Structures are given as structure tokens and as C-alpha cells.
Queue: 2 jobs
Job 1
Amino acid sequence: MKGEWVAAERAEEVRAAARGWRRAGAVSEGTFEEILRRYPEPRALPAPLWRILAFVFGSFILLAVFAAFLVAAGPNPSGAWVLCAVFGVAFIAIAEIQARSPAMALRGGAEAAGFWGLVLLVAGLFLLLEEDLHISEPTGPNLVLLGAALLLALAAWRWGSPVWAFLAAVSLFLLLGRVPGGRLLWIVCGVALTWAFERLLDRPSWSPSHRRCAAVLVVAGLLGVYAAMNLYALDHRFVEFLRERALDLPGPRFRERIWSMLGTAILPVAVIRWGIRSRRTFVLDTGLVLSAVSLVTLRFYVHVAPLWVVLTVSGGAVFLLALALNRWLSRGVEKERDGFTAEPLFADEARLRALELVPVVAAHAPEARPPVEAGYQGGGGSFGGGGAGGSF
Amino acid sequence: MTASQAHLFSRVARRELVSVRLEIRAALYAGVLLLTGGIALFVKENHERIGPAAIGLAIGAIAAGCLAWAWRNAPPFTWGDALSTHAAFDYVLLLGALLAAADLAYVEAQTKVLGPAWPWHLLVVSAFYALLAVRFDSKMLLSLALASFAAWRGLALSLPRASLGPGDASRLRWEALATGALFVTIGIVSARQRKKAHFEDVWVNGGIFLVLGGHLSGVFGRTEAWPAWLLALLAVAAAIAVAAYLWKRTLPFAQAVLAAYLGLLRAVFSDGGGDVAARMLLAAVLGCAALATVFLAHRRMRAL
């Protein structure tokens, strides 16, 4: 990453923090203006919606141009990799040019060009190995995954994108899952990723975006370890199915299952504990998600009650626990306990509430009424007026 | 910057003080989802054994309890912005509203009071949500009110469902246009009258979504009149884009540009056949024009 990009990111972080302080009323308008004056906007930074729109249109354009050349050239399968490689490199170059321009770097176009460039390069590598060099299972796909992991890691390092970092980790785990002892390698690699990048999370010399990449890799490492240890994943041989001839593999041994049960139960609690002790909310969130997955796994094996009881009781419990936590934190000295608070601090609550509208409507909007047909006599409604499913 | 301000910011920066508000809100919403899912499943599996009266009363009682709590903890009514400070308020209100609406649907399904006119219960639910939304200043419930109203007209106001809804496409198109126009009008009037003016974005965006969706349905429908629908789409999209540009509304502008581009793709690929490469390049050129419009509009809207 170029030095001026790092400097620009730091200034953008300060400006974003200042906006939060002003929103929360923690600084006066004069102080806010002074901060903006001292840290002028280094790059044009549109709102997220503009960036999404630019990404969508950028994708349309790039794909249409590529498709036009693909149709016009009509290459045979063994020559298609050349076209993919040429366009992949061209798109990466377009992304790099945009990233270098302060006016264009954060508009969404660079992300679109980078994404499709990487996709085409990986596709080109696959076509080269499969159609031209005829390197088949298992070496061919392994090389594709290795190439994808390296390309994505380079892209994450160059442009500081957490998405590329996460996809690089996914490619790496897929590759490891395809070699003998893949499950153990997932655990080793997950622990190594988490350990290595946790140490870099607060490194001052790293740019803010690289630290976000490190955070994503910590989460990816934890997810990899958990996926290897989860009992359901073990019993269903999720990792082993990535390999060729996985159907010939025997089922898990008793001792493996015992370790897996312990891992499924203990790992989420350990991650939550780590999140609380380190006061890193992304670790805490990961632990909460893993806990939910472990409870679902438990429900799969142990039928203590009908599903509706489990859903209702767990829903009530989650709700009441959240309320109790909110109350406990709010009644602490200055509304905080052990460094945690339920106050929003400097977060943009209005934006969060606006973002909530989409899942609420998607989950609870009633289904459209059916068309009325001649001679139709009704027949009851559906228990969906409130968004709940089920019909009678 | 005062010493106390600097101390607070420093504590937050060093993670000596961390907010878990987002986690609490997410847990509350997950709780609501699980509870409503569990209750729906309970009713589905047990309604014959327990009987409709007991089920209806039980759900009604829980809903009433939630709404009573919301009433007690709500800030006083105002036509302006009145966000509650209680973290659980939005979710207790949502739970109460969803259960009450589900109870109404269940009672109607059991008693068949409305007979063949049973879809009218969707209008009742919509009005109920809208009343709660206005009283408790909830955009969440307003968006559900709009979705329920659209469902009453036979429309699916939900992207995952992808199409306008089941039934006669031609009729649904006009329903979408009329419903969308109604939503947009209410949004503009409420903003002008300063009666819950901050709800404008929900009304207007929901309405524009339906209006543009109705036009796109005409453009991509199996109808000979698609060129006329395309012209209408382009005219409406241009009008929306200009209005959004003048009033600095990002989402309507984005919807208009995207809809216009999608409509033009139909013209580019209309009769199928040869010269696909040239058509693809034309689609790319149109995409460049759309992208340039977006960049230009963003720059000017920032400067306005």
C-alpha cells in the first residue's frame, strides 16, 4: 500500500471519528469545524449507496465488455484462458489506476474492477490448467485454490480490502481441506491465523484498512477452527468431502467425536471470554454467533422438547438476557461496568435503524393476497399478517 | 477540546470503554424472530388440540402486554422525531404489533368473518401498523404498514419475492403504479405539512420502488406494448431523478437510474438474434453513461 494512501486513510479515520463526536454532541460545532480544517478530506468519499451504485454499474460495464470480446473472439476452450488472463490483468490495471486517483479511489469503481479482475484471473488459471495443460484432480484444483489465495492476499495487501483478506483465508482453508489430514490442518492454520493477526490488530505502523484485514483474518481463523471442531461438521464429514474419493472414508472414531463435542461446547465460550477480556466487540460477536451455532448443533442431537418450545424459550431467553444486560450496564457508575456500556457512544444510531428496515420487511412483510378467481369462496387466510409463517 | 472530552475520546480509542449497544439490539431482534417463529409453529401444530379460542386469547394477551409496555415507556406523542431512549422499545413494540396482527389473521382464518373478502384483513393490519407507527414514531412499523397495504392490493413489496406478486400481471402493473403514486403523494404531503416529516423517505422510497417496478414489469412482460412501457419508464425515471437531484434524495435517484438502465437493456437485446457482441458493447456504453450520470449527480448534489 502506498504511503499517501495510508496517510489519507488516517485522515479519513479522524474525520469519521469527529463526525461521530459531533453527532453525539460530544464536541461543539466550532471544534468539529476545526478538526475538519486540520484534517482536510484527502479523497472524495461518497455515501455507501453511491458506492454500491458505482460498483453495480462498473460491474455491468466490465462484464459487458468482456462478454462482447468473448462472443466476438469465440475462442476454443483451450484458448479461453488467454482472454480471461488479458482481461483480468486489464481490469486489475483499471482498479489500480482508480485507486491512485484521489477523486476516484473510493467511489466503488475500483472495487468493481478489482473484483472482476481477480475473478477472471482465477478463471483463466483454471482454464489453463484444466483445458490447456490437462492437469486434472487433485493437482489442478489445488493449484487454482493456491493461486486464488495468493492473488486475493496480494490484493488485500495492496488495496487494504477486508473482503479480499477473508476470501484469501477461505481459499486457503479450501486448499488445506483437500489434503490428507485436512481437518487437523484447519485447526492448526486457524490457530496460527488467529494468533499471528491478533498481534497486529493494534500495530500503529499498519494502516487502518490493514488492521481491519487483520481483524477479518482473526475471525476467519476462529471460524476455521470451529468448523473443524463442530460435531455436526465432523459427523457429516464437511471437511473431508472437499477431497477426492471422500466417499471411501470411514466415519469419525469415538475419540474424535468426544474431542469434537468438547470443542463445540468450549470454543464459543472461550471466544466470548476472550472478547470480553480484550474488549474487542468483533471477537465477542464471533463468540456469540458460534454459541448460536453450537446450540443449534445441540438441538440437532438432543431433542429435549418440541421445536416450538425450543424456539419460544430460546427467543424469550435471548430477549430477557439482552434486556437484563442493558439494565445492568445502564445502572453502573456513569452507565458503564468493567469498560462496557449500553450507550451508543459515537455510533450513528439513525443509520443503524434505517438499515434494520430491510431485514424487518423481508422477514415480516405479509405475502401478497392471491388473485381472486371466478366462483372463489374464500377458504381462510394465512397466519402471515404478522409476518409469521404457517397457513391453515 | 476540553480535558474531559479528550479523556472520553482517549478511553474509547484505547478500548477502555466499549459500547455493546449493537449487540444488545441484535440480540433483542433475534429474540423477536425466535419468539414469533416459535409461536407460529406452536399454533400450526396445536391449534386443533387446544382450540382456536384459547390460542387467540393467549396470543392476544401477549400482544396486549407488549403494547401496554410500549405505551407506558413511550415518549409523549409528537408530530416530530421522538426516538425512545430505551434499547428494547423498538423490539417490544415490534413483537406486540406482529403478534396482534398474527392474532387477527388467525381469528379471521378460524371464524371466516370476512368470508371471500378475507384479504381485507390485510388492510386492517396495515392501518393498525400505521397507527402504531405514528403514535410510537416507528419507521419499522411504517414500512410493515406499507408492505401490508401493498399485499392487500396483491403486490409483494419485498425484494426476495422478486416479482410484483401472483395473479394477472397487467392488473398488478396498474395496482403497483396506483399504490406507488399514493405512497409518494402521502410522503410528500406529510413532509410539507410537517406531520411526521421524517417518515417521508419510507413513503417515497416504497412508492418509487412500486412505480418503477410496475413500469419494469411492463417493459419485461410478455406484451407487445413494451416499447410504450419503456418510454413511460424513461419519462418517469427522468422525472424522479430530477426531483431527487433537486431535493438531494440519494435512494430515489439510485432507483431511477438503475431502473432506466435495466429498461434500456430490454431495448438493446429486444429481438435476440445476431451481433451479440455489438449489443454487449452498446450495453457497456449505456452503463458508462449511467455511471457518468451517477458521478456527476453526486458531485453536484454535494455542492448544492
Job 2
Amino acid sequence: MERRGRAHVLPDDIDTDQIIPAEYLNDIPEEDYGEHVLEGYDPEFPASIEPGDILVTGENFGLGSSREGAPIAIRNAGIGAVIAESFARIFYRNCFNVGLPIVTVPGITDRVGEGDVVRIDIEGGRVDNETSGETFSIDPIPRDLLEILEAGGLVAYRQQQRG
Amino acid sequence: MAEKMLAAHSDAESVSPGMHVTAEPDWVLGHDLSAPPGKHRWEQMGFETVKHPDRIIIVFDHYVPSASERISTLMDEIEGWVEDQGIEHFFPAGEGISHNIMSEGGYSLPGELIVGSDSHTTTHGAFGAFATGIGHTDLGYVLGEGELWLKVPESRRVVVENTLPENVAAKDLGLRLMGELTTKGAIYHSIEYHGEGIEALEMYERATLSNLAVELGAMAGLVPPDDTTRDYLDGRALRDFEEVHPDAEATYIEETVIDASTVEPLVAKPASVDNIDTVETVGGTEVDQVFVGTCNNARYEDIAAFAELLAGENVAPGTDLIVTPGSKQALLRMNEEGLSNAIMNAGGMISTPGCGACFGAHGGVLGEGDVCLGTMNRNFPGRMGPGDIYLGSPHTAAATAIYGEITDPREVL
């Protein structure tokens, strides 16, 4: 699985309230969450996204509430993948479950600038910053999670399993 | 402890940190915010029945009473589904917060595995259960399969020496730990709380600490069961249970030692739970709202500690005091003990038991420039609207309500 896109660099500790504020959760349908992605961080953020863009974030991305609306908002906004220095636990699970590719690269926010073009090769275990020419290795993803991701999420995975 | 508990609930004979196990929970929790998407995923995955209707707990606690037409429709849908599926443990609006209901009702038991599509499910670690949060798709899957994958966490030890001074609360101890470990200090760890300072805590105080475990990034926050646990569960436990204790030779990735006698009244300043300072330092900060509530600090005893300081005083002009009991049981006892009258006579409001204003959707949303001091567990940017949130103990909340500015509870005595 590969992803290539323009980087948006975010700091440490972006929580799920910033990714999708609770006021939207039961008031608008899931399909529309993407229009409000990261509004709690920067109200202008949704307008800055082009399909395929990649979030490059600091430590503990997705802390806070277990709301799955957070990775769904990112996915539905057209963001291709998230690279973080570390992920919060429930958010990490949720990303695989909704089919949003994520990889962990310690120290990545120091090595990627806003707008750099980055390429992620999950099977190959590497991230390339094409703008700077640097290459980084990613923390390995367990096989069972990779299978869920390749299926496009846990719902699709379960449907495949049942034939 | 975590390894023994996960091994006991999975097909693995022995487990080690980092392993993924397929585990079968004793309880699966969903609430009004997570059950509708959880049920939707369960349907999408092709399930037609839930695996164990006797192990499922559904609670309406977040948007109660219903905050919109859309929510009312979703609640109706879940109520019908609960009935169709024969789900045995359903608590409608007004019963209180899931975690409070579960512990008061004897659901939270030592040695049991609890998963909940609510991040504060870690609360039940206070009762010796391995309890952790999951997402909505996870919920749909475990409803249908009765099992799910869990990663075996590393264990981290926190030792609390000595005991807390008067008018310093378990919340202050929890905030002290937040300051020392930070919001990313224990990502994916299972925290174990040990020492005299933990043993001296009542169950409601331990619940405050385990509730905050998730704010440290942890998967679970476990207090080994002791006589305090057994006394609490005597006559309350829904069934027999098997206690799990750490082995004498258990290893931990790290140990943090806190001397409880040095803990002072603390706050988490905007806008992170680890932005800790003393109440003394931020004293004088004017507040527009004081909120006493949530799964962190709204048990009867929390509200009693708050009301004891407030009784006979008046809430400062220009400050709104909102008290949201954590459960109907807590509210009934407040009424019996005269606490509800004391709070309202002082100028406070009492709202429907549930999560209340905590997550910014209703019942106390902050405006631009507003400041709230609350007893909850999160103060992220925008959490309760555009205003700023300080987190503190029920004692600090009482002193702050009286003066309309953040005040050290030791000054009120």
C-alpha cells in the first residue's frame, strides 16, 4: 500500500475534540464530518486540504475521546494517510478499523516541512520526503492490522471473511 | 496484573507485552453517542444477533435529556434494538453516567475484562477490573463476535507514599501525576497504583485516579483489590469474582513515586490536562462558570465534599454554578441528606444525572472569553465551546464558586 501527497505539519497532542468537535457528532451525518476536519485546531484547515494530502503530526496524535468520528473526518476529508511520531491508543485502533492508513515515524515533524511531498510505502516500511530527499523507516505494523487496512477497514474485512 | 488478566480472558496460555490476543470481555459498554454508530457497523458487518445479550450494557448518558430531534430519533432506534436483541442491561436517560452506574450497581468487579466505547472506561480499574476504551467499529464487532483483539500492554508502576493532607483530594493527586507523567507519558501502558497513599483511598477516590489513567495515554489504570474493595463490593457485586493481584516478581517498565503528603490543591490550566499549576499560583483568576460533574468527580462523596464547603455561603454574583450528579443514586442521596437544597440555596443549579456540560454539546457551553473551573477530566481547546477550562477538585470548585475566582479550598476553612 502506497500513499503520496503534500504534507500538512501539525504539533504534538492534537486531540479528538480538535479533529472533530463534539457538537457535530450526532448532529450531522458521518459523510459530512470531513468538511469540519481539524476545525478545532484551525477553522481554516478544511479549506486548505486537497485530495491525497498527508498529515505529518507530532506525538500522541488523537488523544482524548474514543470517538471514531475523528479518523472518519480525516478519511472523508480526502486525506490519504497520517504520519505521526506517536498515536493515542484508541485512535490508533480506530484508524485501522475505518481504513485510514497510519504510520509511526519518531521525530518526523523535524524532517518534513509544510507542503513537502512525502511518499509512504507501508509494505516497504519506508517514508520518503521527496522534497528533501530524505528517507525514514516506519515502525512495523502487525500482520493482523495490515490485513484490516488492506481490506479497507474492519467492516470490509469482516464482509470479506464471510464471503 | 494486566498480563494475567488478559491471559485469563483469551485463548493464549501465557502472554507478553506487545502480543495481540483475541479476548472475550465480561462486559461490553455502549452509550448514546457510541451505540448508534456501533450498531450501524454491526449491521454493516452482517451480524443479525448480538453474541451475549447478558454481557451488554447500554446507557444513555451523554445527550440527556435529548438535545435535538436527531438524537431523539437515534435514541428511539437504540431502544427498539435493545428490546429486539434482548440486551439485558439498559439504562435510559436520567439514570446517570455509565461508569458510575456500573460501579454503584456491582458490575465493575475484580479480575473481569470490561471494554467500553468510551475512553473513560479505564475508571473500572479502580475496582480491580481490566477495563479499556474501544471505538465504534470495535463495538460493532464485539457485539457480534463476543470477542476482539487487544494488544497486551507494558505495565507501569505508580507508588504513592504517605497520605493526602486535609482538603487535598484524590483529584489533586491525579493532577500531580498528570504533571509528572504528561498526556503522553503512559501511551498504551497499564498503570498499577500501589502504596499507602492508594490503600488509604476510598473507592470513589480510586475511581477518580483510574478515570484519569486514559489522560496519561494509558490502556488501563489498575488498583489491586484490597479490603476497601471487598467492603465496597459486599452485598453489591452482581456475581462472584476472582481477584487478580500482581506477582511478587512482576516487572515494570518504569516506576513513579509520589509523596502524597506533599500534594497541594492543583489545577490543570487551559488547554491540556498536563498543564499543571498550584491553585495558589492561579488564585484570583475570575471564572464565569463552576461545573461539578462527570465520571471523574461526581459521585455522592465528591458532591458531599463540595457541598460541605459551600453550605451556608453564596455563589458569587456573575458566576454560574452547575452541579450534575453522576447518577440518579447520587442525586437521591443528595436529596435525602439535604445537599440539593444546600446547593440551590447557595445559588447553584442541579441538572439531570449524566455527562452534562463536560463535552461541550449542551447544558453549560462556554462563550468566547468565558472561563470555567470544573471537576471533569478534559480541558482541550474548544472542548466546552470557545472558552477556557481549568480542572480542579470538588473542594477547589466550592471555594471558587464562593469567591467567583479560583480559590484555594484551604482558605475557606
